[in-house]
Amino acid sequence: MSIAxxxxxxxxxxxxxxxxxxxxxxxxxKPGDRLxxxxxxxxxxxxxAPVREALRELEAMGVVETxxxxxxxxxxxxxxxxxxxxxxxxxxxxxxxELASASGPALLSRLEDCVGxxxxxARKGDSMAFADHNMAFHRAIVEGSGNxxxxxxxxxxxxKMRTMVNVARSSRNLVDLAESHMPIVDAIAAGDGARAxxxxxxxxxxxxxxxxxxxxxxxx
Length: 220
Known about the structure:
Blueprint: H1 12-26, E1 34-35, H2 37-43, H3 48-61, E2 64-67, E3 71-74, H4 79-100, H5 105-124, H6 127-144, H7 148-155, H8 159-169, H9 174-179, H10 182-189, H11 193-206, E4 210-212, E5 215-217
Antiparallel strand pairs: 1-3, 2-3, 4-5
């Protein structure tokens, strides 16, 4: 590993997590690669404690796994796993959008802001920033539903990480993906719960990894 720029003292574990996540998403760290605490700590000029915390966070996100007597390694995330998660997301977010359609102008402003930021990140080709703003968009809807049980279930799906995996595997244009959120915004703006439900559900299903004759082929 090359020596990385020095980290600030604030949120060391978060910075280490984000650097490792970026390497995983870009393929610099591949599925099955070992993640050795001491080596990472030396590269990032820090102690092992924040590295250990970063690895725990990545494990909770589902991109790292710790094997007994073998330590941490980059986890293999299959297209089929992504497909199943997107199927569940479609149902949850469809219902959330139906409920959120009665939330009023505050939610609409948040959603429009998120789409604007997605467009900006897409034009720059910044997939990590895109994933951040994409997650913020979908979280705003689920929070806007007012259903805390629904929010808890949705959070277990790690939408940001799965979006990043999907973006990394797909050739779909990010600008087009940003625009694909607008039918949801329009339905919520109209206060049409049934249309919002269908728009959100279809948005997720349209962007899940698809199956080809040759096998799984990730979508968005």
